[in-house]
Amino acid sequence: MKKIGFITIGQSPRDDIMKDILPIIGDDIEILQKGALDNLSEEELEEIAPQSGDTVLVSSLRDGRSVSMAEEKIIVHLQRCIDELEVCGVSGIMFLCTGDFKDLLTAHVPLIYPNRLLRAIIPAICDRKRLVVLVPEEEQKSEAMAQWGGIGMETSVFPISPYTAAEEDFAALALTLKEVDCDCILMDCMGYSAEMKYILCSRSGKNVLLPRTFSAAVLKELI
Questions:
Q1: Cα–Cα distance for residue pair 205/13, rounded to 1 Å
Q2: In the structure, how many helices (H) and strands (E) does the chain have?
Q3: Which pLDDT does position 100 carry in this prediction?
Q4: Predicted TM-score of the model (pTM)
Q5: pLDDT tens digits, one per residue of 80-98
Q6: Is the alpha carbon torsion for 219, 183, 101, 6 positive or negative?
Q7: Rounded CA Rg of the chain
Q8: Which of 7, 113, 118, 169 is at 20 to 30 A from 21, Cα to Cα?
Q9: What one-character DSSP code corresponds to residue 89?
Q10: Residue 176 in contact with residue 89, Cβ under 8 Å?
């Protein structure tokens, strides 16, 4: 049976994400999960917190807490996850994160970066180049503007946490986005779920792109 590795920037397992991925890729492969923050102490978690100028990423811990971290400070932990999964014999590895990681990671098997898939598809499906981006934290707005504006998209960014926001918060945001003239809404975090997407789609009437299911569909083609 083929083995596929999944790496979260938080702590594994991420069954909350895999519940939307597994129905797409099927049950004829073995799933192995690793987390960049697995086995880190509270003191070590504090050390990876973002400072001014850092690229902010957001994930969750096993106890349900949301955690913010600097992308630059978790590269060594992500590389550890890759190395461990390769020892286990995986045929490919997908990141459960929309971070870019700037070519700092190496592997002997294909690495699937949802961010890079999104950067390829979004210009192709947004004819008028008008994009709405959802991010978990207010601090990520400028990064999102720079990233998507940098590939020619007219970008509007709205922060809403997939870990702390309630269903009614997504419903209220959907009503706001209904009045925004855009080609597509990107839920730019792997923490956003299919249920959250459904609320946005049904109440805003917009096309919504969910990274976890989009990336899983690409993974399915590869395996």
A1: 33
A2: 8, 10
A3: 87
A4: 0.92
A5: 999 999 999 999 999 999 9
A6: negative
A7: 17
A8: 169
A9: T
A10: no
